[in-house]
Amino acid sequence: MARSESYTVAAPLPLEDGAGDLTHAADLFNAADLLRGAVSPSDYKYIVLGLIFLKYVSDAFAERHAWLEQAVREERSDYYVPGAGEDDLRAVAEDRDEYLSVNVFWVPPPARWDAVLARAAQPDIGQTIDDAMRAIEAENPQLKGILFKGYAATHVAPHAYLLKKSGQVY
Question: CA angle, corner 13, sides to 109 and 8, nearest 5?
């Protein structure tokens, strides 16, 4: 059950002298360059932008998750549960409505960034990313058919590097 307590998602990275964080951007583009030979130019942007999207929604989800866990422990909060145990924390922090009520996409456990990143070196990482995108679409009907799911069909090696570099953008 969602409550109306103030919550905001982290703002984008601040611009520094109008240039932004070019180090991370350069690293990300260098990582994306690895795909040029393995991926058609028309799919190239979907792979990179899909990983950035996955990282962004996972970060927004993790931020809300941490906020909810803290709110359950905070006496002044509407979420406060006296003597909250792990089951209480999990019940609140894994309540789908608590995310949707603040316009944060629900990200199922196997689709969360940390879960995907933990499998980055596995030979089936492309399939893992595709499965994560399908799981996010299944839980968020407004995304149905929108997310790119062609990672398994592309060369495997660059995905691990791209995942690590995408994770440094935010």
Answer: 55
What are the structural domains, with CATH classification, of the chain? 22-60+106-166 (1.20.1260.30)
- Rounded distance, CA 44 to CA 36, Å? 7
CA dist 113 and 28 (Å) reads 17
Under DSSP, the state recorded for 10 is P
Which helix (H) or strand (E) segment is 26 a member of? helix 22-33
pTM: 0.75
Token pair recorded at residue 76: 């002044």
What does the pLDDT read at residue 7?
47
Which residue would you say has higher pLDDT here, 43 or 50? 50
| Between 33 and 121, the higher pLDDT residue | 121
Minimal CA–CA distance to 106: which of 64, 162, 46? 64
